[in-house]
Amino acid sequence: MLNFKNQELTKIITGTLSAKAAREAIIQAYNSRMRLLRNDPLWQGNLPALQAETLSYTALMADKLLETLKASKDIDPAFAERLWFEPAVGDGDHSTIKVYLASPDQNTELLAIEGILTDSGRLVAKNLPTLLQITAKEPDLPYTAAEVHALAAMIKVLYTADLTFATIDETVLQPVDGLSFATKFDSSKPLSTTVEIKSSGNIKLAVPLDHGSVVDYQVVDDNGHDWKELGADSTDNDVLTWASTTIPGELVGAHLRLQVNVRTAENSPALDELFVIASSNAILMRQAGRNAYALDLPNHNVLGIKLDTANNRIILHYPEKTVHVMELDHLYPFLGQWLKAVLPQRRAFN
After folding, report:
1. N or C terminus of the chain with fewer C-beta within 10 Å?
2. pTM of the full predicted structure?
């Protein structure tokens, strides 16, 4: 239960705070209160009481976030008045806020805010426009154009509080800048080098990686037997080196080949697909640095593509930080065409 005589809480309740400031202040107040209760023998084992406390702070968070949405100049006041939040508490201190849009005949759950009292809280879309909906031949959205605009503005406010969606599959009402998703790299063509064994004992083989990320490697003889376990590898200055001091006499006269499977930006099927789709829309893609590419758009902005070969991901960058996928796709439909081609769960691409 909230102590309304607590000055810290009073400032939060009565103050005009941004979404980010409200979230940070409430999390701090909640953590302080829970530390106090968990160190008190009377309350530390009383789960129902601790959950009730969590629910109180979750409800406060819901009220303050809704307040920021209603105060936003970018959200139609008539739309904001239709929003209502439902706080709930689960196991431990995990809590959720469900966000609804009221209509005369129903309440539509728009999204949920999971783990709202933790630093890792995130948005989970429930009934928001998706990639498949906006790229359909005949898009059928359950919202008017004005409602979609208001939904996008609402999510932009929540993003200022560091609340984000986990994946592009959830909704297209999330910023293009920083958007990332898993991808595949074709590592079927290994880099290699071969040496003839002149004598037993020491040997060293080295392969330049061409800025690729190593998937695995083998050290094979003429018969395909892998001798990797006879030595150790190291990587320095973009070169993988395998060295051994225990080459047996039976290998003298034979050949050893060090073959390295790598992930590089040059062997990304998703990037190839983007090149084809963008080109068919008269938009050219150019290299913009190591593992980075750029598409110069007619609006004089640049859509950046960064390939994270170490983590199998593609990351998008856009100079206007709040422009969401649906907005940019409206201007340049190639974006939705490409994302639809490589997402979701397209085995050739991710």
Report:
1. N
2. 0.79
